[in-house]
Every structure is written in structure tokens, then in C-alpha cells.
Amino acid sequence: MKALFQKSPRWLLVLVGLAIFGIVRAPFEEHTRKKLVDSHLLLPPPAQDAIQQMSQSALMGTLGGLRTLVSSYLVLEAFEHFSNKEWEELRSAYAIVTSLEPRDENHWRDVVWHLGINATANMQLDETIPEFERKRRFNEYALLAVELAEQGIAQNPDSAVIRQQLAEVYREKLKDDCATARVYQDLVGLPEAPQYAERFAGYFLAKCPGHEQEAYDHLLRLYYEGEHNHVASLIITIKDLEKQLEIPRSLRITEPYPDLPGLTQP
User: Fold this and answer.
1) Which of the listed CATH numbers 1.20.120, 1.10.340, 3.40.1350, 1.25.40 matches domain 50-175?
2) How far apart are CA 115 and CA 85, in angstroms?
3) What's the pLDDT tens digit per position in 221-231?
4) Do 122 and 170 contact (CB within 8 A), yes or no?
5) I need a surface site. Which of 44, 121, 186, 199 has the fewest CB within 10 A?
6) Closest by CA position to 96, among listed 46, 43, 58
7) Closest of 199, 239, 195 to residue 219, by C-alpha
């Protein structure tokens, strides 16, 4: 694919020309689009600020049927940037990809994974960069991943895969148990949501200061829903919460503390 672009400078010039033309005509198209929306002849676009809407409209309107081709090429370029740990270039490539195909939830998931998991891991390990700068970039990439996930969810409100990736960033990188619990709770009931989402919402809520009672009520409800929820992690968390909340022994679950290898009962 890269060779095709390198050997076709005329094609690239045409594409650039079309893009410039699209940018110039974008304000006129935006005005027309607004009139159609106000007249209820056109649905409003997904929630974005005006500049993002205009840029996306220009790109999509200009490239037309070439969107998938250009997007595929840029995804390959992004993977090369990932291999070379070129995070800013990867970020720029996906900014265009997600503008060209905003309804493809996998693009949003991938850029959140690259920046929120891979780029942050690189900052934790790359000792050629001063420690203070590594910490700064770590936070920048993690928070950017959260921002991009939220943008992707705005474009794909029922997306489970974007939320799962967002939960991983909160859980593994930002160590934010409260936000992790919220994202898992948002997953519940969505198409293609993992079965464990509701349990995980309770587990992380139990680690969120001040929400122990809420977590206990949540997990206890799941416990009494049926034996399919009587997994070791749920029983352990409930029993730990019973002690924290000083639940009377007569009201505690009768399930014994799981006997797991390497696990000592507190």
C-alpha cells in the first residue's frame, strides 16, 4: 500500500487538491447542512464541536468512496508508527482515520489501546527519557486516551469495545477504581457487553472510598440472583465488605470463604 502511494505522486496531488477544495467549500456545506437540520430534513450529526464537525464534513465529502482506501492506508501507517514508538505520528494518523470513519468503533478502540496502554508502557520503560518527562508524557497519553474514548463513545453510544478499552486504561494505568466501576456499570445492558461487567462494577466500586455500602448492596443482589454468580471473586469481595461494614453475622452469606491455592483467609 505504501509503495502505491510512493509511485503515484500525481494521484496524491489530486487527493491534496480535492482536500483543499473540500476545506474551502466546507463553510458553505455547513450552512446548508444547518438549514436542513433546522427544517427537520436532515438528522443532526454526532455530538462534536463545530470545528470538528466542519473538518469531518470536509474530509468525508471530499474523499467520498476513497475514504476506506485512505483510512486503510493510514491504519497501516499507524501500525508502523507503533512499531517505531512514534506516538505523536500515530496520534495524528488516527485523528484522520477517526474523522473519515467515525462510526467504526474499532478505530477508536485501537487508538485508545495504542496511546492508553502501549504509549504509557513505553514511558514507564524508556530510560533514555528523563524521569520527569516520562511521567509527564505518561499522564498526557493516558488522559488523551480517556478523551478519545469519550469522543468515540459519543459517536458510537452503544459501543462495548470502546468502553472495555477505556476501563482498562482507568484500571491499569490511572489506577482510578471509581472511574473503572463507572465504566463497567455503563457497559451493563449494552449489546456485546461482557458477562462479567456487572460483577466487575461491584468489585471496583468496593475499592472506591465511601462506596462500600453501595458495592455491598450491588454484589449481594448479584449473589442472590442465582448460583451462576457464586464465583470465588464475588464471594471473597462480599465477605471482605461484610467485615468492613460490620454486617451482623446473622445477615452474612453462609457460603464458606473460598479455599484457593495461595489465598489465606483474613
Assistant:
1) 1.25.40
2) 10
3) 999 999 999 99
4) no
5) 44
6) 58
7) 199
